[in-house]
Amino acid sequence: MARRLSYSARYPYPAEQVYAAQSTPRYWDEMMAGFEMFSPKCEVVDFACDDSGLKVVLRQTIGRDQLPSLAQTVLKKDMIITREESLGIFDPDVTKGDYTASIPAGPGSLKGWQELFPTDSGCTLRKTSEVKVFVPFVASKLEQLMLVNLVDLFRAEAAYAKDWIAKNA
């Protein structure tokens, strides 16, 4: 059975400004460069922003020795995560998108939906993730572990976005 979790990043900036930041390759390149302090290799594999919206493909490598022991029992090599994120064209009411993450020979799947919308104090980017692990006996524990780590990732990305916009807008 899949598990779901929603995370909302609140920004003191208008939604259009957050969208504009994410619409630049430099935003993503600098974010991946910053993540290299945690993972040995982080890169932007592909980036596109056009009349249909934006799409970015990110790849991160996490050393097996950095993984929690439960994850090490399932994965015998370094974990290579490929994440695809998209947002449709900017809509002042709500801009919708989605994301997926995959691990070669990984024990499960991760997909999610995101919405960027205005609030009285700026805007919110809400991400709703669904995780499914296909390993008997440890599936629920791995799903919970993935969701907890995903929230940590989203928090770090939200902090990065706030800082990046403050410095570059």
UniProtKB/TrEMBL annotation:
Pfam families cross-referenced by the UniProt entry: DUF2505
InterPro entries: DUF2505 (IPR019639)
Protein name (Swiss-Prot/TrEMBL): DUF2505 domain-containing protein
